[in-house]
Amino acid sequence: MPLDLTRSRHFSHSFLEWVHGKGRVLILTHDNPDPDSLASATALKHLIQVKTGREPTVAFGGIIGRGENRQMVKELDIKAVPLHCLDLNQFNVVCMVDTQPGTGNNSWPLDRPVHLIVDHHPVRETSSQCRWVDIREDYGASATILYEYLLAQKVTIGTKLATILFYAIKSETQDLGREWCRADREAYLQLLPLVNNHILFNITQSKVPLEYYRSFSKAIGNAVIADGVLVFNLFDVHNPDIVAEMADFLMRAEGIDVVLGMGCFKGDAVLSFRTLSHLINAGEVMRDIVEGLGTAGGHGMIAGGQVPGLAPGRQAQLDLAETLTQRLLQRLGRCGAQRQALLPPDHEIRPLG
Length: 353
Description:
The chain is an alpha/beta fold. It is built from eleven helices and 13 strands. The chain has helices at residues 5-19, 35-52, 67-75, 142-152, 159-172, 182-191, 197-204, 210-222, 241-250, 282-289, 314-332; strands at 25-28, 57-60, 81-82, 93-97, 116-119, 132-135, 224-226, 229-236, 258-265, 268-275, 295-298, 302-307, 340-341.
């Protein structure tokens, strides 16, 4: 599907007409926002500011933990604040980008209204209660939808905004190698000449703490393989994004077509799912395996989930990992009788530092 400027022009014009004069606007990303969520929020903020003269507030739950994301916020001067620092009663309009109400991956209270949703994940039943909904499941990135809005409304896209939109599409689709559509490709190619390559280099080559490399050690050392499925457990983590990053890394292992990763951040389990199989719907699989335990979401090849309120101690994390592994193997119809560690038993991993 190519860029749909007619649809975007009609939708964005109607929304902007509606929001005009409504008062303060809040734009919410998902928790621990990634480049797609941050870029979408920044683009929507720019659109509303240019067209209405009012400056929305961008907020997020959790933390911005991944090195590239922190560098992106710094280099591109992204103004985003923790949601818990705000008085929610001050906002008359609430927008969600790259997430939806009730998914479990954002910190917006369920009893408060949401007026606008722009997303590329499967539609949730709770989203039908919102006034304005633009969800395009066939798009690879929410940033592509926001890019269409800016084009349709003839809003100037400066170098920094172009860079964050480009990086969002680049990272979300793995350089147009994963779950992209024609609109993503057109946006990617149109934005490329506008990108600040120096800033892009600084983002992709950002410095990371030593804990980042310890996560590789833990992920590899705890990984177990069964019938093409690799499961790893990072146990306690300082940055919830690291679970997804390790899942992407281990997805490259030969003979593996499914990866499930787990970590524990502030007492809650953080889950990440990856697959190379077009026959597996990652979002559906994740929702099935956490049913009754937590929440999950995603689409074709990537998904994530949360299991809140784990009991203290390592044993609770081990028990959850075993439960999820058994559920996953059963859901996929894989044989889990023979499991093997990624590393041989006699391999010694020496700690860094």
